[in-house]
Amino acid sequence: MLNNSSLTGKNTAIVGVLFLIFIIGTTSASLPDPDGIILLSWDGISKDTLESLLESDSLPHLGSLLKTGSFINISITDHYPDTIAGHAQILTGYSPEQTGVFKSMRYSEIPPGMTIFERIEDELGSDNISTAIIASQERSLGTVKGLPFYHAGKIVDYYYDRNSDAGLLGSVASEAVYYFGSSGRFFIFAHFRDAADAGYAYGAGSSRQMTAIENIDEGSGMILKALQDLGIYDKTAIYVTTDHGFNTGPKDHTGQTALWMITNEPGYIRDGDQKDITPTILKRLGISYGEMTPSYNSTDLIP
User: Fold this and answer.
1) Residue 51: how many CA atoms within 13 Å on its side-chain side?
2) Upper half-sphere CA count for residue 90 (Cβ side, 13 Å)
3) Rounded to an integer, what is the distance from CA 159 to the centroid of its chain?
4) Can you tell me the distance from the alpha carbon of 156 to that of 194, in angstroms, rounded to the nearest whole number?
5) How many whole angstroms separate alpha carbon 151 and alpha carbon 159?
6) What per-residue confidence (pLDDT) applies to 247?
7) Could you give all domains of the chain from N- to C-terminal order, each with its CATH number?
8) How far is the C-alpha of 116 from the C-alpha of 91, rounded, in Å?
9) What is the pLDDT of residue 251?
10) Is the bond preceding 294 in cis, omega lying within 30 degrees of 0?
11) Residue 229 C-beta-side C-alpha neighbours within 13 Å
């Protein structure tokens, strides 16, 4: 069974969706190997806010993933919930003590070789897979020396890190899909900042933030359309998550550690930690992570 009970049955519409997912997406003994993986970060979106928009059918593209996919509870257990610390963990699988990235005012370069991009390139070979970072925020995910992802920026095949809205970011990311998706295996990470910006400016759950999330869904839809145009949607594993949530009403995210992840793949039944995302992606690419150094204090979520 899928762990869609994570949505807690707050409303009948969500429960109906969960029942449909249970019927269609029963646990599969083994998922087919994907040709590519897309990881999307919808920055700063709380689980209750996301549930409300799913209930109202305001996120058609994200909702399309749930039709045959899974909703997974994700928790932050060992770092401050903000953009820099969250993405360092999502994209390494390590704690702040290992990466040196604690929060927005306390960080360093992630040590060489520790990001998921470096792991993938090292294990599979740069000729066998393409990697890309497409980020809508210069500072948190930028390539400048001294920033956390400086070393990752030196090895990925494409790196975009400009302050961008969801429409521009979706356009850039979809072009990356067209380019890399037509030439072999790929791992593409894309980051949308709009909801976090609206949360800080107007508060979580505000009409401005809801509109921003809907815009992110549209931007993500451009990426899904590119996969469909290439005929590789069914051969691509898609994961959508967030780095941190917001306290509903206030313009802060203190204590927001109960998060979420949605995938187009069925059968995910276990709650996870934010550290589990990197091992999950490595395993979906056929990469064994158990003997890597430093060792992971985490595990994959693969059913």
Assistant:
1) 24
2) 29
3) 17
4) 24
5) 12
6) 63
7) 4-284 (3.40.720.10)
8) 6
9) 53
10) yes
11) 13
Q: How far apart are CA 267 and CA 97, in angstroms?
A: 33
Report pLDDT for 242.
97
Find the angle CA(263)-CA(267)-CA(273) to the nearest 5 degrees: 60
CB-CB contact of 90 with 41 (8 Å): yes
The two three-digit tokens of residue 13, written as one number: 């519409």
Beta bridge partners of 41: 191, 241
Burial (CB count <10 Å: 0-12, 13-18, 19+), residue 196: buried
Q: Is 42 exposed, middle or buried (0-12, 13-18, 19+ CB in 10 A)?
A: buried
d(CA 38, CA 250): 32
CA distances from 152 to 69, 108, 131, 216 (A): 30, 13, 10, 25
Q: Which of 242, 247, 241, 257 lies closest to 78, judged by CA?
A: 257
What is the pLDDT, as a whole number, of residue 19?
39
Q: Which residues does 290 contact at the CB level (< 8 Å), separation at least 6?
A: 296
d(Cα 99, Cα 112) in Å, to the nearest integer? 10
Q: What is the mean pLDDT of each run of 10 residues along the chain (303 residues)?
A: 40 43 44 95 93 96 96 95 95 98 95 98 97 91 91 96 96 98 96 94 89 98 98 97 77 70 97 98 97 96 95
Give the span between the Cα atoms of 192 and 41, in whole angstroms. 6
Whole-angstrom distance, CA of residue 91 vs CA of residue 277: 8
